[in-house]
Amino acid sequence: MATEINIPEDSVLISRTDPKGIITYASPDFLSISGYEEAELLKKPHNIIRHPDMPSQVFKELWSTIKTGHVWTGIVKNRSKSGDYYWVDATITPLKESNQIIGYVSVRKNPSRQDIKRAESLYASMHNTSGKKNFFDRLFEKPIFQISKLCASLLGVFFISIFINALGFFFSLF
Ligand SMILES: Cc1cc2nc3c(=O)[nH]c(=O)nc-3n(C[C@H](O)[C@H](O)[C@H](O)COP(=O)(O)O)c2cc1C
Question: For the whole model, what pTM was predicted?
Fold first, then answer.
């Protein structure tokens, strides 16, 4: 069973990436907690440490924030090489040169238990509600339904024009 790795108070887990999220630097604390050798992380995409409990919307929001040059902060659950997990309080900052983003740096610290609990229940609720489609959502997505919707609209326009013509005819009798 996966167990939680507690990050010591004085540890700072730092990584740097290129603009595409490919790891270019990993600090000794990051290597030690994640359980990877430096060579196993360098030149790898940062999702190598992604934990499946993390909802994809969190990363969408992360990327849209940092790509536009802003700083993102959040509580993230990561998976270690051994399959265990650790929570981090992360701050990701874009690195700029002549106003161009040349990469990103993430500085991670030990989050408080309260922050972990809050993030854990928020992420669990995001998994339960989003991305899950019910029977009708899936049915209405099918192309045949899209075409039927279009036909129904055209039919609607057709009947309305018949109705208007009939009304015109009816009033023309008087
Ligand atoms: C500097 C930086 C640090 C990142 N740190 C993490 C991290 O600690 N854990 C994580 O799962 N994703 C992290 N990401 C986001 C990943 O690039 C990726 O978007 C995420 O793991 C989701 O994977 P996916 O985009 O393949 O769905 C980081 C990205 C950047 C730019």
Answer: 0.78
Q: Is residue 2 part of a domain?
A: no
Q: Over the stretch 101-155, which tens digit does the pLDDT of each residue have?
A: 999 999 999 999 999 999 999 999 998 665 556 677 667 767 777 777 787 889 9
Residues 52 and 111 in one domain: yes
Structural domain span for residue 25: 13-129
Q: Which ligand 1 atom minimizes the distance to the CA of 106?
A: 1
* Distance (Å) of CA 47 to CA 21, 76, 111, 112, 123: 8, 12, 20, 24, 17
How far is the centre of ligand 1, averaged over its atoms, from the C-alpha of 39 (Å)?
A: 18
Looking at the DSSP assignment, which residues form a beta bridge with residue 94?
104
Ligand 1 nearest-atom number relative to CA 45: 17
Ligand 1 neighbour 80 (Cβ under 6 A): no
Query: 37: which residues sit within 8 A by CB, 6+ positions away?
Result: 31
